[in-house]
Design goal:
heterodimer; A: alpha/beta; six-stranded mixed barrel; B: alpha+beta; three-stranded mixed β-sheet; 2 helices; about 40% helix
Chain lengths: ~850, ~80
């Protein structure tokens, strides 16, 4: 960030929630970087920024679309970057129709299936040749050949991405931004002018975001706007550029890389999907292997993973144990299976270091669902709201639910904290850092490694006595980690070594994913992490000697310790840096390799002049000026031809509950592909709804951590932020005759909570069209356990799923605010929440 | 560690190794009852009766073992954590 000429922070309160990272923003500002903050609330981030713009929660695509339009109309894009490194010049299939032509949906919309057929979004000519790597034929989804395309380098062809983009965002004018976001045209113009200057050979700009962008029914498309903007401005892969996803837990990046998620395997490999195309390894590989680009290596990664999982038992004859992996048959995500739990379809649940009774959407419903389980195992540092749902939840306190009627067996197991165990975390910068056990965990506290290892041993013992095929995978697992210490903790380094990968014959660690093979001679738990432990005793995650500006020598950034992804784009097509000021990696003609201040994110011997042969595959099929090597075309995707459920371009839809009708597409109010999961207990307000006239957003505080298990239980943090509060504007307080500090009740279609009113100009009333929209802010940290207690903000939020990643919409929700406490407001709350029969 | 019996209003103490056996028994029983190797002739190898939640506060090594045992070993597909990628 020190290299940025401008920084845009949006959907984030970085100063308060990422204070350690924010020091770099402060330092950048002190050396001349302009810092812009766009957020419904004026926070400490805003106080440190040069410019703060309040906007209506849920109107982000209009604002960002406005910035995109500004860049296009005023020709502020970085033309040479655009032409060579993005798909702006590429021509799209003739059958494509934009939302501008179809009143809010793209071509291919199938209402009965609630999904799109995305074939009209492909490049012209992409359907002429299979995009699959050579392999067995099979009847399933066709994969476009994205490396076959036509383009117009003058950017004039009516169906080139650039022209479609212009038409698509033409109506996102400054006037529209003012009407729909509540941002004055003058303020918008200032941001547009400032940020778009951070572009070109000599300048770059960076964008930071957090859950203010992600927790929306169009969250992915909001982020896509940032991708389009950064590609137009030539800011990807360059120092001071990029898009930083500010993640919200110690190792949430790690937990997506090595995913405790249902639909992926380590290193972003797909879980096999039930059906004919996953019946054998060959078909599954073919389905997932494009003919061109780096993912051509998919087979090496899945086979190496299978060898890591199943060891000796995984052989070519049995497809390396591929058959033992489960296939996915539906929505097995948190919200997906929780509704199954609600319907009594699940037996048991493990919860480790998460607290859904507070942090889940529609947390009241989540708590009720827990009571439908036969058994629940909670592993945490304290007795949380989740482990105590059966005795202290509000539903229990008020008599709605009685413990004597809850059959759920609960095991509460104390877990080791990060100072009590060895292991790695991965942060926002993709940096793996090892932490060492400083003290032994007390009493019965154990690490999750301990728990999984010993549970696995007990289960494998049972499987040995019953060796039917259904237990083959369990018995095949490589599960022979050494243990140490009085509690027999597995040696965490051995697990990291397995993740790094090794050659099977001699168990030597591999230096990186380049050494992985598809023939069963290598094993690797996560190809993207390979290289973290390249030799015995060389744990790069545990290195702490920073050698240069980018921190090489401190920790290990995946992949291959590249600190800035796609850094080939920091050089011109001919391999020289765009400028001395912004140099990062460059082609050294004398040594015939890429060199510079970062590990090149490129085959380091591939010259800029490389032209692929006619039938080239994999990375060889990408020319020497194609930086985005994980894409089949090697290009930055301003247009997403394949892979997103809700469109090749972002379009503005209102949140699932909104105070206004969609001003851009009156006939398509919400994201057509989002799932609202409407059901009893998960109801919605109308858009608009006179019962719920205000817009609610939720957020975090510095002093508390997520659901509060690690902060409301500590006296010093509890003292700093003891009580739940509700932030309302001065105008709303006057409107409702609420005095500062008084109790208020906040109500949505899902529930009601009470809090003290914090009356403040930090949260602003916005003029949206002819109306004044009041916004309300709620921190989400409080619950019924700990030293300080309070109502649970997420009781107000609905269970819903964004189409691509299934995240819930926790910002831009409709609410009402009543003077007084919940008990005295009970009749009013009941009336508001009564489901209307219309 | 603590244990709550069905329908109970309070916690009891439970010995850790006893708890591990009880948990293993329950996982085994649920899986035995619900695991399916195939459906309509296609490979399934799955149970949806047992779920897992959590990971963002855990180490990479721990997430690795959770996915390895629960998914690659037991065929549990209902695995989720705080992240949505």
């Amino acid at each position: 960030m020190l290299n940025s000429d401008a920084i845009l922070i949006m959907g984030s309160n970085m100063a308060e929630n990422h204070p350690v990272a924010f020091q770099w923003i402060v330092e950048a500002k002190e050396s001349g970087t302009t810092v812009i903050h766009v957020d419904p609330r004026f926070s400490r981030t805003s106080a440190m920024a040069d410019l703060w713009l309040p906007l209506r929660a849920g109107s982000d695509i209009i604002f960002l679309g406005g910035l995109i339009r500004h860049v296009l109309e005023n020709q502020l894009f970085f033309r040479e970057y655009l032409l060579h490194y993005t798909n702006a010049p590429l021509i799209i299939a003739e059958g494509f129709r934009d939302t501008e032509e179809l009143e809010g949906v793209f071509s291919g919309w199938k209402p009965e299936q609630h999904s799109y057929d995305s074939r009209t979004w492909w490049y012209e000519g992409a359907d002429q040749r299979s995009g699959h790597a050579p392999g067995p034929e099979f009847p399933s989804l066709p994969v476009p050949d994205l490396n076959t395309y036509q383009k117009d380098d003058r950017l004039e062809h009516p169906r080139c991405v650039f022209q479609i983009l212009k038409r698509h965002f033409a109506r996102y004018t400054p006037e529209r931004v003012e009407e729909c976001c509540g941002v004055s045209q003058e303020a918008f113009q200032r941001v547009a002018d400032t940020y778009s200057q951070a572009s070109g050979p000599e300048k770059t700009g960076g964008i930071c975001y957090a859950v203010g962008w992600t927790q929306h029914s169009s969250g992915v498309q909001i982020i896509r706007c940032a991708a389009i903007l950064q590609l137009l401005l030539g800011n990807m892969g360059r120092p001071g550029g990029g898009i930083l996803a500010l993640r919200g837990h110690a190792s949430i990046q790690g937990s997506t890389d090595i995913p405790t998620l249902f639909d992926s395997l380590p290193g972003y490999l797909s879980m096999p999907i039930f059906g004919a195309q996953s019946n054998n390894l060959g078909k599954y590989i073919a389905q997932n292997t494009p003919r061109t680009g780096w993912w051509r290596n998919f087979d090496k990664y899945i086979v190496s993973l299978l060898k890591a999982y199943y060891g000796e038992a995984a052989q070519p004859e049995n497809e390396f144990g591929f058959r033992w992996l489960p296939r996915i048959t539906g929505d097995h995500s948190h919200q997906g299976y929780w509704l199954e739990m609600m319907d009594g379809k699940m037996d048991g649940l493990f919860v480790m270091g998460e607290n859904p009774a507070v942090a889940g959407p529609n947390s009241g419903m989540e708590r009720r669902a827990l009571a439908r389980l036969k058994w629940l195992v909670v592993r945490d540092l304290v007795d949380t709201e989740t482990s105590s749902f059966w005795r202290s939840a509000p539903e229990v306190e008020n008599g709605e639910v009685r413990p004597q009627e809850i059959p759920t067996e609960v095991f509460l197991m104390p877990a080791a904290g990060h100072a009590e165990k060895d292991g790695t975390f991965t942060n926002t910068q993709r940096l793996l850092q090892w932490h060492e056990r400083a003290v032994d965990a007390p009493g019965d506290s154990r690490s999750e490694n301990w728990f999984m290892f010993h549970l696995g041993n007990l289960l494998r013992e049972k499987a040995r006595k019953d060796p039917r095929p259904r237990h083959a995978g369990l018995l095949a697992l490589t599960w022979d980690y050494h243990t140490e210490g009085p509690h027999q903790e597995p040696v965490a380094e051995e697990i990291l070594e397995e993740i790094n990968g090794y050659t099977v014959a001699d168990r030597r660690l591999v230096p990186g994913f380049g050494a992985l093979k598809a023939d069963g001679t290598t094993a690797c738990g996560a190809w993207i992490y390979s290289g973290v432990f390249p030799h015995a005793h060389e744990n790069r995650a545990n290195q702490r000697t920073s050698k240069d500006f980018y921190g090489h020598g401190w920790g290990f950034a995946w992949p291959a310790d590249r600190r800035i992804l796609y850094n080939r784009a920091s050089a011109r097509p001919d391999g020289k840096p765009w400028s001395e000021r912004k140099k990062l990696v460059w082609w050294d003609a004398a040594n015939k390799r890429w060199m510079g201040n970062d590990v090149p994110d490129f085959v380091d011997t591939k010259p800029p002049s490389h032209i692929p042969g006619e039938n080239a595959e994999g990375d060889d099929a990408l020319a020497g000026d194609k930086p985005f090597i994980l894409h089949a075309d090697g290009l930055g995707w301003i247009w997403v031809p394949n892979g997103l459920a809700d469109g090749p371009l972002p379009a503005h839809y209102e949140p699932l509950e909104s105070p206004i009708r969609n001003p851009i597409y009156p006939r398509q109010q919400v994201n057509p592909v989002a799932s609202n999961k409407k059901r009893f207990g998960n109801e919605y307000a109308s858009s608009p709804d006179e019962r719920f006239p205000y817009v609610l957003t939720t957020y975090r505080l510095t002093e508390h951590h997520t659901a509060g298990g690690m902060s409301r239980t500590l006296s010093h943090l509890a003292e700093l932020q003891p009580e739940m509060f509700c932030e309302i504007s001065v105008e709303l307080a006057q409107h409702l005759a609420i005095n500062p500090g008084e109790w208020v009740t906040i109500v949505t279609a899902r529930g009601a909570v009470e809090a003290h009113a914090l009356v403040t100009p930090r949260i602003q009333t916005l003029k949206i069209g002819a109306r004044l929209i009041y916004q309300v802010g709620l921190p989400f940290h409080w619950g019924y356990s700990g030293l300080v207690k309070g109502d649970i903000g997420n009781d107000l939020i609905a269970i819903s799923e964004e189409p691509n990643v299934r995240i819930m919409e926790a910002k831009g929700v409709l609410c009402n605010v009543l003077r007084g406490r919940q008990a005295e407001n009970a009749p009013k709350v009941k009336a508001l929440r009564e489901v209307r029969r219309d | 560690m603590k244990y709550r019996r069905p329908f109970s209003e309070h916690w009891e103490d439970l010995e850790l190794s006893r708890a591990m056996e009880m948990i293993a028994d329950r996982v085994w029983a649920s899986r035995e009852r619900t695991f399916a190797e195939t459906r309509d002739g296609d490979t399934l190898m799955q149970t949806t009766a047992i779920g897992h939640l959590g990971g963002a506060t855990l180490d990479n090594e721990e997430n690795y073992l959770i996915k390895k045992l629960f998914t690659a070993g037991l065929g549990m597909v209902c695995i989720s954590n705080q992240a949505r990628i």
